[in-house]
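Might you be able to consider the sequence and fold that I enclose below?
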Amino acid sequence: MGVDSIRIHAMFLYFGLLLMLPSAAWAASADLSDLLAPILAVTADLERRVELVDEPLQPKEVIEALRAPAAGLEFSLRLGETLLRKDRLELLREAGVRLELKVKPAMVPAAKEIPEGMPSALAGLLGRFEVGADRSQTSDELADFFITQLTNGTPSAKRLRKGESWLERDLALLELAQSFELEAALRSGDGLFRTAVAAMDELTALSSTTWPAEAVTFDVKGILIRIGSLGDDRHHGDFDLLVDPGGDDDYRFGLRMGSSTVVLDLAGNDLYRSEGYGGPASAVFGSSILIDASGDDVYLGADGAQASALFGTAVLWDRAGNDIYSARSFSQGAASFGAALLIDDAGSDVYRASYLSQGMGYVRGVGLIRDARGNDLYTSGFSEPDPRGYYEKYGGKKQGEVFQSLSQGFGMGWRSFAGGGFGFLLDARGNDRYVADYFGQGGGYWFGRGLLMDASGNDSYIARRYAQGSGVHFAVGELIDLDGNDRYQSWAVSQGTGHDYGVGSLFDADGEDVYAGDWSVMGMSNAQGVGLFRDQGGADRYAFWDHAGAVSYWDDLRHGAGLGVFADTGDRSDRFSVERSTRIWSTSPWSVAIAGKVSTSWTLTPDGTFDKDDGQGAYRDADVKEAAFLADRLNHAQSLGDRTRISELLFVTSGWGINSTIPTQAKLALLREPPDRALPVLLEFLRPRSLFATMMLEEYFHGAPGVRPALRARAGDDDPKTRSQALYLLGKLRDAKAAPIFIARLNDENWRVRKQAARSLGHLYDRKVRSTLADLRGAIGKKDHKAVSALLAKHKKTDLLWLVGKSTKLKREDWAAVSSGWERWTASKPIADAAAKILIRDEVYPLDLEPEVRFQKGKALQALEKAVSDAHPEVRRWAVWSLHQLRSDPAVVVGALYDPDHGVREAAAKALSERGTQSIEPLKRVLKKARGRSRAQIVRALAGVNDASLQRLFDRETRDDNAQVRFEALKALVIGQTAGRWTISRSVIKQLAKDSDRWVKSLALSIQK
C-alpha cells in the first residue's frame, strides 16, 4: 500500500464509515496491514509526544512499541511464542534482553569439598554460594523502601516518626537503586539456576540408600545445608541449601536477604509456607532457586513469595502435579531490579494473589509465569480497594467494592519518577480461567509492558477495568489468545484499549468467541492512546453498550487524537448486541471497524461477572489497615515543623503509593494550611519530577497571594524543567503580568520551555474561557441560579476544587460530592453562588485584558508567528493554537498547513475551521498555488466552515488530479448535504462512482446507494 493510499484510507474513515455505508472493495482487502494502516498517519505524532516525559529507566522496547503500535503487536506475538518454546535455562538470559542487558555465562567456580554423608552431586552447587551480595546498611535501606512500597503502598510508621521529608528521601533512594549492578545479579542467578538443575538431575539418579533416615544439617564454612529423608520431614528454619528426596514435607522459612538460597525437592506432596515478606524462591539482594520435581504441592505465602525478586533473581520450577499457589502481594513471578520466573510444567493449577503478582514487572524488573499445560485458574484482586470505587456508583459498585489487581501479565512503573518493567503470563495448553478486577490480564502502566498469552484451550477472561490488553499512561498492554472458543468479559476500558498515549491490543487468532463489555472496550482509544482489537476467525458474538467497537476522539488538551481499531476478519457470521446493518463503521476520523458477516443482533445480560461467588469465592471485607495507617500518619504530621508537616501532607494528599486510597482528611488539612507557609514548600518541590506540587499549585493554591510573583521568578530558573513548570502554571492561572515572560521565553534554548511559553500565551487570551466567565457574571447579576449551576458544571473541576481551600466551613459530605460528581455539587445554590463569585474575581480569571496585556498583544503575535517556524514540532503546534486564540490573520495559520508534521497540520486545519468565514479568502488564495497533499489539507479545512458559497469550490475539486483532494472534496459535499447547506449533484456522484481510486469510488457508491 502506497503512502498516498494510506493517507486516503485515513481520510476515508471520517465520513464513509461514519455513515456505516458498505464498501465491498475495501472489505475485500481488509488484511491486518490494511486495517492498521491509519496508525501510520498518527505514528509520528505519537512518537513526538512520547518524548514529553523523560523520567529515567524507560525501556527502549516500550518506547519503540509506543511509536510503532502495529509492529509492537507483531513483535509481542513472536516474543510470546519464543518464551513458550524457550528452554527454561535460557529464560533468565531472555529477561536480561528485556532489561537491555547481555547476561553472559557466569564463570564456573571450583567444587567445594563436602562432608561425609552428603551427596557429592551438591559439590558444584556449594561453589555458587560465594557469589551472593554482602548485606549492608545501603541494601537494608533500599530493601525496606521498595518492600514497603510494593506491599503497603505507604512508608512504614517507624520511619515516618523520624520526621524525614519523604519526597526528597524517595527520590534519593531511587537514584541509589539505579547504581545497582543488575547485570552481575542476573549472571549470578543464571549460574546458580543452571548448577541447581544439573545437581537435581544427578540427585534423582541416586539410590534410596544414599539418603539419611532422618533429616540432618551441615555447616560448610558458613553455608547452612539441610538434607532431608525419604519420609515426611519438617524443614523449619533458615537454610542456604535444602535438599529432600521424598515424602510429604512441610517447609517454613522466611527471607534470606543478601545471600543465595536453593531448595531441591525430588518427590512428595509438599507444603511450602512463609509469613511476612519472603519465603521459598524469594530473592532480595541475592538469588533464590526452588525446584520441585513432582507431587501435588501447596505454596502459601504473604508478600514477596513464590518467585519474587528485588535486586536479584528468583526461580520457582515445579515440574509436575496439580499445585496451589496462594499469596498476597508482589509474588508468583514478580520482580523489580531483577528477574523472577515461576515455571510450572504440568497439572491443573490454581494461582491466587491479591495484587502486583502473577507475571508482574515493576521498575527495572521482569516477572514471568509460564504454565505448560493443565486447566488452570488465575485470580487476583478482592483485597486492595481501588479509589475509583468512591465515585463509580454508576457502575453498580461503591467504595470498598472494586479492587486493584495489577497482575496477570502486567508491567508498571513508578509514575512521574521512573519507567516500568515487563510482566509476562504465558499459558501453553488447557481450558484456563483468568479473574481480575482493576488493571491486569495483559496490561501496562507508566512505561511498563505487560503480555498475557494463551496458546490453546477454551479460556475465560473476567475483569472489571483497565484489563484484557490495556495500555495506560505511556504503557503497552497486550492479550493474545491463539486458539480455542474463548470468553472475554469486562466492565470498562478493556479489550484492546489505549489510554493517555498508551497502546493496548487484544488479538484472538481462532475460535468461536464471546466478548462482553459495558463501555470503552474492543478497540478503544482515549486521551490520544491507540487501541487495537482483532479477532481472526470463527462465528463470534459481541455485546457492548457504549463507546465500544473502534472508538477514538480528538483530545483538546493534547490537541491530537489517537486511533481505535476493531477488526473481525473471519468469514463467518458475527452477531452484535448493537444493531449493525453494515460490515464497516466508524465513530470518528480516527477509528475504523470491520466485521465478518453480520447476522441478526443478540442480547447478552451480564451474568454476574463480579458476583460474590465468581472465581475468588466470597468477597472479603475491604482492607482498612491502609486507611488507618494513613490516618495515623496524618495525625503525626500535625506535630511536625512547618516544612516537614506540609511536605508530608503533600505526600499523603497526592494519593501516594500504588494502592493507597485518597484520604479526604489529608486534602482538607493541606488546603487549610496558611498559604504563606505552604507556598514556599510547594514552590521548592516544583523542581523536576515533582508532579504533585504542580497539581496542588494549579488546583488548590492558585488564588493565594504571592503565588504568581513567585512563579514569575521561577520562570527564569537555571533548570529548564522548573522554567517549563512555572510557565505552565502561569498560563493556567492566566497571569496577565506574565505576558512579557511568555514572549521572552519563546527564544529559550530548551524546546520544552518554548512550547510552554507558546501554549501559555494562548491560555492568556483564551476566548472560550473569557466568554464563559462573562456569561457567569451576567447570570449572577440576574440572580439566575440555574444558569449559574449550568455554567459551573461545564467549567473545570479543578477550579471548583480550589473553592475548598477558600471555604473552611465546607462539610465533609460536600467534599464527597465534589469527588463523586461536581455537577450535583454545583446544584446547591449557596455553593454555586460562592463558586461563581470566586471564579470571576479579577485575580483568578480577569475578564478584561489588562492594559499591559493589550499592549503586549502585538509583540505576542510577532513572537508566535516566528515560533511557527521553530525547529521542534511541539513548539510549532502550540504556536498555531495560540495564534488562533489571539485572532491573528488567518493567512499566518494557513502556512502551517504545509508543515511536515502531522500534528501541526491538524492543529492548523482545526484552527482555521473554527475561524469560520474569515478563513475562506486566505484559504482560497493558497489553494490556487497548492499541490497534492497540501491541497487536500486546505479542502479539509474549508469543509469545517459553515458557508453555502463553498459548494462550487468543492464541485470543482472533485475533478482534481490528486485522489486525496477528490476524496476530501466529496467528503465536504456529503457533510454540507447532511447539514442542509446544499445537495450533491447527480453528475458528481456518477462521475466519482467510476473513479480510478478505490476510496473515492467506494464513498461515491455508498452515497449512490
Q: What stands out?
A: The two ends are 27 Å apart (CA to CA). The mean pLDDT is 76. DSSP finds 37 helices and 42 strands in the chain. Residues 20 and 408 are 37 Å apart (CA to CA).
